[in-house]
Predict the 3D structure of the following.
Amino acid sequence: MFDRLKNSLTDDAERKIVAYLEERKQEIFDFTCELIRTPSVNPPGNEVAVSEVLTRRLQKLGVKETQIAAMDPQRPNVLAHVRGKDDGPSIMLSGHIDTKPPGNLAEWKTDPFEPTVVEGKLIGLGSGDMKAAVAAMVYAAGALNEVGDIPGRLSLALTADEENGSLYGSKWLAAKGYIDADVCVIGEPAGVLREWESIHLVSRGAALFKVVVYGTQMHSSISDQLPGVNATLKMAELAIKMQRELRRYLTFEEHPYCLLGPTVNVGVTASAGVAYGVFPGRAEFASDVRTVPGMTEEQVKADVQRFLDDAMTADPDLRAELDWYLMVEATEIDGANPVVASLVSAAKSVLGESPQLSAFPGATDAAYIQNAAGVPCIASFGPGMLPSAHSPNEAMNADGAVEAAVIYALASVRYLRSQFRGSQS
């Protein structure tokens, strides 16, 4: 990668950026491993230790304008700024610093908190989702700070709590005015079938809710003598019916980047009953619907309720209530936004090919960075593979963090320069 880059670049500042990152490629890898070794599992949620690791490294790299912003001291966000020689445009790089829990440790072939390289893959909890991207952003900021020959500003927003709703992270930061840039790039893993597969212009939304089913709680020894409704069985019947039928109740328009439309996942959690000897009188299951641009919380909620009303009309013994949690709405950035061209150009320089433009299947912090703070946002472009995220033996290309650092640094400087020249003409 570096040999090809050095031979193709003609701009002195970009050459300096690449040289800076090449000299530190082992350091970038080691820092990624340090982040993986620093637990930030959510839930329960505590990003203090990892925020301290990030702050120390930013300051070591000369990025002095660094701060902690937190609604709760145990849930810190790390913010940083690199300012160039001129006032002008601004770009933000954002990544979350928490991870999902590792799950069943017996399914891991290695210790999830001890990064291990096997056949060119870096294995570890949060490797691709998304501590490699966060490490890359830190070093991209260090590179631009070292070169200094940039107009405008590069900012970092390294956020808490993304894996459990972003209430302490991007949602709070947006509400308090900490999200401030012309554009933002989020480093969620860009690969579904292969790494660096797509620049995701769309972040699908997520509607999260539970359905509570009521039955007849009584002594189980007499369930064959007295009439009663088994809430567990009714829940099972309803969950199967919902998985088969809910999608056609949903109101949405086709989208060119979301050809499959919304995704319905019924029964992501479930609970029922009290104990042996008790005929179950209550059961509940949680579901999520991955929404496409244009779908609103009010409409999705109404669509789900309409499904439940029809189901109860068809089955007089069914009593079900909708327990709505929240909806994170989808986002979309205009493909003509200059940051898209800057990312495509930088990716082609580093990887030798241009990624496609597509939609991120899940929800990201773009929901708050774009919808709440008003900053147009690339929903996802980072190292790693989405199918590996949230899974045992999470892994990514061992060179991914270094590749990402170069892509982010080059894309940032190209965007800032293009926008500065445009403002001067």
